[in-house]
């Protein structure tokens, strides 16, 4: 049986691979792709989602745009990592996959209420859309199986010393999601940095010998150059697909149940995820936090997904 999911994302190089993995793996039923401002502005992340679906042959999956700014404050994008388009590297043509004439939150609400079984939400960008959905439409809560998000860290951050980008862009939204009372799994930097795009990984994509695989090589090459320039890391971590992998096969991503809160007011720590690994606060656990990735089978999963899409122009369409 395929697990129904909605992918809420801000493409982004790693989001692009997350879209491909979510669409291609037969254990998932990708109901929709919704977009949010994050790695780039909303118009660019939405265009990028449509571009990825077009080159990967993903049809029949609605793409809807959500919020163009965080709940509080101004939007700060990651153009130093993802470039001026948010998906620098390959030369994309005009997308043929259309944009749904519906706001992302309205689409998520409609799909959740209509689906016969609970649906997993997988946000891989700032949590604005998901937070508004849960805040303004409490009737959907029984229809949410779980939320598996990419964001935060048990250690240090990547946009400030202690804040990971997705949480830092909209800390108030992350706080709402983590206090929602729903099952939440947090896939943070501490585990996604175990999914490194090494030269051997790039060679596996190149060996597929398809236009889509070649585009993945270009994406990862640009991503690697940005990570080396900004962080001094030649092998970039492919963050977002790790959250998808956790839904496909939980044994790939080991988790622990712990309390997690988001720092909202710290002068130097706003947006930090305070993960109580040693249960010092006395708070009840409110999240499963990823701590370890089985990297080899994870990469098998991602490469196989690109191979599946490369071989079928309609792969990823709901059946």
List keywords for this structure.
globular, 39% helix, single chain, alpha/beta, 319 residues, Inosine-uridine Nucleoside N-ribohydrolase, Chain A, IUNH, disordered C terminus, 8-stranded mixed beta sheet, two-stranded antiparallel ribbon, Inosine/uridine_hydrolase_dom
Q: What do you see in this structure?
A:
This is Pyrimidine-specific ribonucleoside hydrolase RihA. It comes from Phytohabitans rumicis. Residues 5-300 form the Inosine/uridine-preferring nucleoside hydrolase domain. There is one protein chain. The strands form 2 sheets. The chain has an 8-stranded mixed β-sheet with strand order 3-2-1-4-5-6-10-7, sandwiched between helices. It has a two-stranded antiparallel ribbon with strand order 8-9. The protein contains 12 helices and 10 strands. It has helices at 13-24, 42-56, 79-82, 104-114, 128-136, 165-169, 171-178, 189-192, 199-208, 211-231, 241-248, 295-311; strands at residues 3-9, 28-35, 63-65, 119-123, 144-150, 184-187, 253-258, 260-262, 273-275, 287-293. The protein has one domain: Inosine-uridine Nucleoside N-ribohydrolase, Chain A (Alpha-Beta Complex), CATH 3.90.245.10. It has 319 residues and is of the alpha/beta class.
